[in-house]
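Standup notes, structure subgroup. Blocker cleared on the nicotinamide-adenine-dinucleotide input:
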Amino acid sequence: MILNIKTDNLRVLVTGGAGFIGGCLVRSLLTRSNAIIFNLDKLSYASDLSGIEQTVNISNHNLIKADLNNYDETLSAVIKADPDIIFHLAAESHVDRSIENAKPFIESNIIGTFNLLESARMHWEKMELPRKERFRFLHVSTDEVFGSLTEEGQFSEESPYDPRSPYSASKAASDHLCNAWFHTFNFPVIKTNCSNNFGPFQFPEKLIPLIIIKALNNLPIPIYGDGKNIRDWLFVEDHVDALILAGTQGEVGKTYCIGGSNEKTNLEIAESICELFDINLPRKQSYKNLIKFVKDRPGHDKRYAINSELITRELGWNAKHDFNTALSKTVEWYTKNQEWCRNIQKKSGYRGQRIGLS
Ligand code: NAD
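Run returned:
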């Protein structure tokens, strides 16, 4: 059964909609549909609603401040939203923070997913046909659950789980819970595992915004280890298109891998950003002189790469954005929105310092 976000007047519950990817999803849903959006978020250090507040159809956006770690709050949010579809993105998401302190990752990503699955299952069981038949729960996960690749090969839906950081282990656990709820209770779960995202409104602890902000402030750009760790980068709007497709047209019980086919070393990313600044905001010396190699991340995965053939073949998804153009657009956005960066840094207390060394 296919949901049509344009014509079906859906009630949509997005968890983590005040975060980077969830915010982009909420903005896209508000712009592309008449859906009523319920945005469940605990409003953490990584949250920001300013992008959503500037979006059209803002009257269709309803914020529910709730912590998934709290079952009662989660259940009443689900009852209030009475959703036709749930996009579950809320999670603690930064590997370095999970090394520093894994507990919030266990609480939000594992207990939080369990509380949401149980609340959503209760809601679904009470739904009447035909709404019940078309209800979907889309669980948003990461390629990091599959571990680390050597130079060869790509992750796909068949890849075995081999998480290596507290973050990826907690996401892997949440994926397993979703599979269990599908197989045991026939609960209509669809899962996605995506590669690294980048784009506007990403909290500036993640690689690309961190490099941009360091360069803008003429500060050393830290690169972990030898800089040769490889990630497969995807522009956030392409990820969001894939999530909407998978959630509305995907097959229940299936997993879809989503990737950008843009494998870059961390050093290549830093150099590309520096080259953009050398052209657009020239200083005496190249920005590349700011790059400094620092102690590696403990357990740093070597390489991630995703094979997206299934979602392309079955749902017709393709990334629309060329990597270099999207990177340039992202650098331009951060350059124009330094006030946003300063505000979110001030609010969160994170000023670009190194975390997660032990
Ligand atoms: P983010 O850290 O920017 O945002 C996460 C949001 O979830 C925040 O607003 C936070 O307040 C909220 N949240 C966290 N714990 C919560 C809880 N217990 N209750 C309610 N809200 C809670 O993360 P992001 O980068 O937007 O990632 C979103 C999802 O996509 C995550 O599940 C992540 O694992 C997954 N993912 C991210 C990437 C990436 O490159 N960023 C790639 C693949 C998958």
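Discussed briefly. The longest strand covers residues 136-142.
Next: hand off to the docking folks.
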